[in-house]
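WARN no homologs supplied; continuing
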Amino acid sequence: MAIQKLKEILPPPIKAIHTGNEEAFNEFQDKLGVMLPNDYKQFVLTYGVGSIDDFIWVHNPFVENTALNLNEQMSDMLEAYNESRKNHPDHFKFPTFPEKGGILPWGGTDNGDELYWLTQGDPENWKVLIYGTRSSDFVQYALTMTDFLQKVLNKEIICEFFPEDIPSEAPKFTPYE
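OK structure emitted
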């Protein structure tokens, strides 16, 4: 499983906070109206909320901080994307969740890059979409969220939007409290 590979290179915190539990995830998914990928749920249950290499943030439905809360960020990011899509339809071509096959945010970076799932088909096979900071430029990866993170941290893929020093030589997860 991808989370196991990720844990090998990104040790989880000794005490993860804001992890939620299966019941809380089920309630959140019922309200959202969609099942989230299992690797994302395993990530949140394992790591909680925090930063990867002081750069990448995975949004979490169980944290109160609105800048890190999945539900709050989903609303803000999709509203901004839809506004850009309305004004520049040739550059912002993807529909947004809950539209069929719409993009759904799962994270962001300190530079303002936006991390999305492309919600086409089975959630276990949703692709990762990265939009560069304040840009219509994006890259798409046929990877799950944790496969993407693992491959970035292993330097198997280089995301053109991330700085050269990401990943560091010893990637770390820093819990947010």
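The two ends are 28 Å apart (CA to CA).
OK
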